[in-house]
């Protein structure tokens, strides 16, 4: 069994991993940047070490320093959290070379899921349904126009290395395609150093539903149902829930079986998530695979009673899964909202100093916090300062709890998206589970203008 | 002459144009970075970049003037 873990991350996920380490009697080591020296996770760990300056290259992406600390502190494993080095195949490989266990899948698998085009190819071979499109980079705009004509408009133009919606644009005819191609390619080249473009048919008003999987190193794999993450702003999730109010049992099983089949086919181990787009007819299409723990993993924990970080550590230690598919339960309904330090209307970041913090409490209310009562939220990192998770016997009860909890949630000194979350959760369309990925554009912006 | 202003607090990640360049309405001229989010700032009219008030790496506040276009 792993005995001492370095957490190569910060904020709420570092605190989250430390909590499970403590419960399992595993020693935890935090690493932090100069900007985070007062952050809660630094004092929660058994030991903590300064990495360097606030810039991520000097700190949370500074692989040499991180590995040096892991070895000198006597760690036997590294937990990468999400973001930063979590999907960096080179880092996973280096850990291995240094004799450290990387808590995640193999470097080969991480690499194969890292490029969108490569992932499409791999998952197509593994038997997952794909959005109609191509699984190789486009040569030029002429080829794009020809293929788009074959598939039929509307089309989603995408950068292979893209993320966060950058290099991605929906186009409805050839003129729009030609206009969009060069700009998105340039932007992808600038942001990701790779201008490779491909295209897919645009699925209209889809839902974003993902399957959580666990696979051990002996080849056993299970799925832990789904999470519905359709409510997004700027292509980033804001509200996540489990189970999905849209899926019936038959579709849930079909998606779960497909995900587990793909996981086996690619030799995946540890916790992972296969994201799907689901259309109004409940057809599902592979979107991408996240080869790490997800931000929204708590909703799955709430309905299954499993601790996903514990499962990750056990699998990485070489343990076999102690349960099979028929042992996995689904109890109640859980919803997570992400609290961001940002303007609730423009969604632009709002760094600053927190002067007061009041958190809601009660049964079925769970907090994952990156901040304390007087933390400074810097502009160096992600704007997510906390996650609020509620659980009820059913969706209706969970929503009632969430509305109450959001009403009692108070962060002073900085702008947060809490007013936006309140409007989303109180919206009739949310209550009726009419949650598609355009929810925010369709309902929130309108209500903001009219109110 | 029009001012190009920062739409959020953050640092100047990239400056894409140089003083004297001609730009068109909607063309990205500067990219700001804050909290892992890159926001391209575009020119709001056709014209010439008269002056760039910031350098890459500078920290700017919401509303600060980044450049002048005329």
From TrEMBL, chain A:
- Key word Lipid biosynthesis present in the record? yes
Q: In which pathway does it act?
A: Lipid metabolism; malonyl-CoA biosynthesis; malonyl-CoA from acetyl-CoA: step 1/1
Q: Does the keyword Lipid biosynthesis apply?
A: yes
User: What is an example of a GO molecular function annotated in this UniProt entry?
Assistant: metal ion binding
Which top-level group of life is the source organism from?
Bacteria
ATP-grasp domain: which residues?
120-317
Please state the span of the N-terminal signal peptide per the UniProt entry.
none
Biotin carboxylation domain residues: 1-445
Give the catalysed reaction(s), semicolon-separated: N(6)-biotinyl-L-lysyl-[protein] + hydrogencarbonate + ATP = N(6)-carboxybiotinyl-L-lysyl-[protein] + ADP + phosphate + H(+)
Q: What is this enzyme's EC?
A: 6.3.4.14
Q: How does it assemble?
A: Acetyl-CoA carboxylase is a heterohexamer of biotin carboxyl carrier protein, biotin carboxylase and the two subunits of carboxyl transferase in a 2:2 complex.
What role does this protein play?
A: This protein is a component of the acetyl coenzyme A carboxylase complex; first, biotin carboxylase catalyzes the carboxylation of the carrier protein and then the transcarboxylase transfers the carboxyl group to form malonyl-CoA.
> What is the protein name for this chain?
biotin carboxylase
What organism is recorded for this protein? Peribacillus saganii
From TrEMBL, chain B:
Q: Which UniProt keywords apply?
A: Biotin
So which domain of life are we looking at? Bacteria
Q: Where is the Lipoyl-binding domain?
A: 1-70
Q: Which NCBIfam families match?
A: PRK05889.1, PRK08225.1
- Mind telling me what this protein is named? Acetyl-CoA carboxylase biotin carboxyl carrier protein subunit
């Amino acid at each position: 069994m792993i005995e001492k873990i370095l957490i190569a991350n910060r904020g709420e996920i570092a605190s989250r991993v430390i909590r499970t380490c403590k419960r399992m009697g595993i020693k935890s080591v935090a690493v932090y940047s100069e900007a985070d020296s007062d952050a809660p996770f630094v004092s929660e760990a058994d030991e903590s070490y300064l990495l360097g300056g606030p810039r991520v290259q000097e700190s949370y992406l500074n692989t040499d320093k991180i590995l040096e600390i892991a070895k000198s502190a006597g760690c036997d494993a590294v937990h990468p959290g999400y973001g930063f080095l979590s999907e960096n195949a080179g880092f996973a490989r280096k850990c291995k070379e240094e004799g450290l266990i990387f808590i995640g899948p193999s470097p080969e698998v991480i690499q194969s899921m890292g490029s969108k085009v490569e992932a499409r190819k791999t998952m197509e071979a593994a038997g997952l349904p794909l959005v109609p499109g191509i699984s190789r980079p486009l040569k030029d705009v002429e080829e794009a126009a020809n293929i788009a004509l074959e598939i039929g408009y509307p089309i989603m133009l995408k950068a292979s290395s893209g993320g966060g919606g950058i290099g991605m644009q929906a186009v409805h005819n050839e003129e729009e395609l030609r206009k969009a191609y060069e700009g998105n390619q340039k932007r992808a080249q600038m942001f990701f150093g790779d201008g490779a473009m491909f295209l897919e048919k645009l699925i209209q008003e889809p839902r974003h539903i993902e399957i959580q999987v666990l696979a051990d190193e002996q080849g056993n794999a299970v799925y832990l149902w789904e999470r519905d993450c359709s409510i997004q702003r700027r292509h980033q999730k804001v509200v996540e829930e489990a189970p999905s109010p849209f899926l019936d049992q038959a579709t849930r099983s079909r998606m779960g079986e497909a995900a587990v089949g793909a996981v086996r086919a690619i030799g995946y181990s540890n916790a992972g998530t296969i994201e799907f787009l689901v259309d109004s007819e409940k057809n599902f299409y592979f979107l991408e695979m996240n080869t790490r723990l997800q931000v929204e993993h708590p909703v799955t924990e709430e309905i299954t009673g499993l601790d996903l970080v514990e499962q990750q550590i056990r699998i990485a230690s070489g343990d076999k899964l102690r349960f099979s598919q028929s042992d996995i339960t689904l109890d109640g309904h859980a919803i997570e909202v992400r609290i961001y330090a940002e303007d609730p209307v423009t969604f632009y970041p709002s760094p600053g100093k927190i002067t007061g913090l009041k958190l809601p409490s009660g049964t079925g209310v769970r907090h994952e916090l990156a901040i304390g009562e007087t933390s400074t939220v810097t502009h160096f990192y992600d704007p997510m300062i906390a996650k609020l998770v509620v659980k009820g016997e059913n969706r209706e009860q969970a929503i009632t709890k969430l509305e109450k909890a959001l009403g009692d949630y108070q962060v002073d000194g900085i702008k947060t998206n809490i007013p936006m979350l309140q409007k989303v959760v109180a919206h009739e369309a949310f209550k009726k589970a009419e949650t598609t990925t355009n929810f925010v554009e369709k309902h929130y912006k309108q209500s903001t203008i009219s109110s | 002459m029009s001012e190009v202003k920062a739409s959020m607090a953050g640092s100047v990640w990239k400056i894409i144009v140089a003083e004297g360049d001609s730009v068109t309405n909607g063309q990205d001229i500067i990219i700001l970075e804050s909290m892992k989010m890159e926001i391209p700032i575009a020119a709001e009219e056709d014209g010439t970049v008269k002056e760039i008030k910031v350098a890459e790496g500078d920290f700017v506040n919401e509303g600060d003037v980044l450049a002048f276009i005329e």
